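thought: fold this chain, then report.
action: predict
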Amino acid sequence: MQTLDLIIIFGYLIGITAFGIWFSGKQETTADYFVGGRNVPWWAIAMSIVATETSTITFVSVPGIAFAKGGNFQFLQLVFGYMLGRIVISLIFIPMYFKGELQTVYQLLGDRFGNRVKMLASALFVVMRNVADGVRLLLTAIVLAAVYTSFNPGTDPTTIIIASIVLLGVVMIVFTFYGGMEAVIWVEVVQLVIYIGGAIAAAVVLIQNIDGGLSQAMTLGEQFNKFSLFDFGWDMTKTYTFWAGLFGGCFLTMSTHGTDQYLVQRYLCTKKPSSAMLALLSSGAVVLGQFIGFLFIGVLLFAFYAPFNSADYAQAGVAGSGISANFPFLKGDQVFPDFITKHMPAGLSGLVVAAIFAAALSSSLNSIAATAINDLYKPFKKDITDKQLVRYAGILTVIVGIVQIIVAIAFMKSGESALGLALSVASLINGPVLGVFLVGSFLKKAREVHALTGMVVSISVMLYILLATKIAWTWYALIGSILTFVVAFIASMIIPTKNDEVSI
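observation:
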């Protein structure tokens, strides 16, 4: 790392902050602040969706999946489910979102079941999103710390990680506070261009530094089965199988992209359901391409570091050996950052690190504020003005940003993979929320008490599955949503209620 790299990195952070402030004059109403006045073009929404689901966790961890001993391309089986889920969302959910002037997806649940169901779903989203994005912030800070310590070897890494968490958190707070949702989307458009460019630059440098170049990397990839794609086994403790990917990935996407405010809010920034559908479906093709690219970078890293030439490689990942499957690294998350900070040329190293930051700074602060204001606060303040709500939304943005900073620091000592931890948390809660949307759509007899019963039972069972079983997180959304639906159906058969609600 050189001074030029640090200039590029901090220049990017300053530029993003200024970009958000530039939007500050446009945020006069809650419609401006939360849904960009519904005037954002579909292609910007599509790029925003890709940038949103491609976090630093993706940028750093996915190459580590292919790098690890026994690692391969089977992660893509999950992406196939992502594609299927997008089709289902376009057919079932998106048309519902344009029946009224929604600012949050959970307002549909309020119309269907009442405030208690809406508020429970909203509260679950707020909790899940803060935890998941706290983890996202932590991983980015780890990368920044690696960059800084490579430049200043005597510096305490823990101190730098904490300082990095605070720095990145403040940047995220500032551009979201001033610019609202429209600023978040356009920042994400810029971020997508930057991190794709950074990934391509890293791949080119890797190929140039591998003895034998691309052909040698391809040969090694085939020799060690790195390009293996399908696993048709039914082992539910295994994360990446065809069935877990297709069905689990489909339900996970239905929950994250179909019933989660973080992404649904982006659709609401368009005027027509057709524009939202086009944005969502086109984003799927880009996501597939980029995951192929990140996994291939993992193969290139495998060829570059050549861990298979070490005597310890045979014991890597073997129980009791003490040698990580990611040998010579303890975690897969460390492989790509090590190459970026130690082996990339000056200038390009800074560009790629800026790309990692770009993937990290997809802010959920506005989505959380929108949910808290519309679903948790507004029902109790009928006489509040729109101008007051905009001011409170700004205050909440700051508070939520501070909460995510605290969460990131709290998770610093976690020994779990950042990718698995974030996706486990998301899948745990998204399943029951998706389930209650399905209840509202397909169980006309279901009422508030039935929906609440389904959600409570599902959340309880999912906590047990998370803590006491080895079932892979890829199944969580499917299990949680089906369980919510089935329990609500049974409850609707045995618990009598007044027939006073309509389907979504």
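thought: worth noting. Residues 38-400 form a domain with the Sodium/glucose cotransporter fold (CATH 1.20.1730.10).
final: tokens above.
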